[in-house]
Amino acid sequence: MKLALLGCGLLGGSAAAAWRRAGTATTVIGFDRDADAVRRGIALGMIDVAAGGVAEAVAGADCVLLATPVGAMPALLGALASHVRDDAVVTDVGSTKEGIVEAARAALGRKFARFVPAHPIAGAESHGIENASSELFDGRWVIVTPTTETAVDALRRIESAWTGCGAIVEPMDAREHDRIFAAVSHLPHLAAFALMRAVAAGADGSRCLQFAGAGFRDFTRIAASDATMWRDVALANRKALVRELTMYRAELDALQAALDRGDGTALLRMFEDASQVRRGMRFGAFGRREGEDGHDA
Amino acid sequence: MKLALLGCGLLGGSAAAAWRRAGTATTVIGFDRDADAVRRGIALGMIDVAAGGVAEAVAGADCVLLATPVGAMPALLGALASHVRDDAVVTDVGSTKEGIVEAARAALGRKFARFVPAHPIAGAESHGIENASSELFDGRWVIVTPTTETAVDALRRIESAWTGCGAIVEPMDAREHDRIFAAVSHLPHLAAFALMRAVAAGADGSRCLQFAGAGFRDFTRIAASDATMWRDVALANRKALVRELTMYRAELDALQAALDRGDGTALLRMFEDASQVRRGMRFGAFGRREGEDGHDA
Q1: Which of A167, A265, B28, B223 could disulfide-link A162, Cβ–Cβ 3.0 to 4.6 Å?
Q2: Which residues from B are below 8 Å from A209, CB to CB?
Q3: Does domain B2-172 have CATH number 1.10.357.20?
Q4: pTM of the complete model
Q5: ipTM score of the complex?
């Protein structure tokens, strides 16, 4: 299978490498507006051929994988629509789904039936194709959000491509996807960015940061994530994210009110609730408790 | 040196084990209101003798180490004051310092000169003496907050006890300590507790949590921390914590405002600020970048 990879960063490179390792992709044609990223991907053996543009990249491809920040995807879909083969499958790895489905519907016309929206729950704060790994998806969820118009054979091909990388595929409604990931991914990223800024901006910010321990390190790890990617995610999932942010701020308000009135009983109850839920959590598609590798996005 | 350990949990057990390994403590007398914790500590070889009460524990001790949640420390200081030897050193491992210094001054009278307030920046979400480790303090900061009344020989003994465990001792004013740790430790814990509650309390909370990835896992790890310990910390450092919480909420307000008006430029700038600071951070007393073990408290 000839794969056109549009966007040659950590996630795209990892997908190309994982699909190749599984025997799903035999040739990978790479395009990125940063031509050097494609060259590095070729040097790493993750990409076979550099394309000079979107049209050239997708022309002969059996499958087109969009792996840019989600904000760049609508324009890419518009650019590829008339060049992609009728029987090719187009898919993506975007962290938001509703907006991309609508953009694909608008851009692809009758080829929209061959668009399979997907979101692998894997990633890293590190970025660039030099940090890509063919094992990134092992034991991870890949959410697919097909519509009633999605062709079954196209969906099956993408599902088996991801299953071949050790991932577990979970179908979901695009709107439900966006609500769930607003809560468990987009909100934590915003909360970590905000906390990092609040601490750093204080009068003695750098002295404070010098004494930060492992709790701070883990809590803020996602604050090192790629700013462009997260700006796009935040804008694309704005409505659901504002809803989650509002709920989070209400919890912080309740906490601050309990602090203000010195209400140890209320604080203890809130902390116990949170601690109990967190201790019971399992992670990844195989329900591991702690200590798995990798990062979500 | 005969050490009286008051509070036999993860931190107390680790301190006793580390001080013993370094040759600082030769005999450890343990007391905890949970007698079973003392028995487990004896079985683990971390405690030598169980004391029936505070008076019995401290009577012959060269050093008394308070390792309970900070809320229990004022009463303990009151209980030990008339039984501790005049030349003994009393110290603690509490995460807040100003309140404890005041409680010690009130409880210990002329013996206050022999009280050395200390805070090792080490800990874990796991708790109980069975999770204690003699290596917990290796490469970690231990903050000491002596007053002008503190006896130099007492301070030196505690400093060298911690240095002997591989820790780096940093002296600091108690108020500055509380301000710094409100920012880099107490606020992140509150933020993680609040986010955990906000997500879990949603209509489909448990379905959301099923798909949480490694970012959520790391961000919320500290939300599994001991609720009683953190209630005490929050109450003891209420003023500084409310100030930090107010700054954090202002950052979240700014973020939500940028989202509401769809201002990608502002979002990008905020995320870039945070990401840049986070990427430049070093952790622990030796300035390791990432991947060190253990957790702060």
Answers
A1: A167
A2: 184, 277, 281
A3: no
A4: 0.89
A5: 0.89
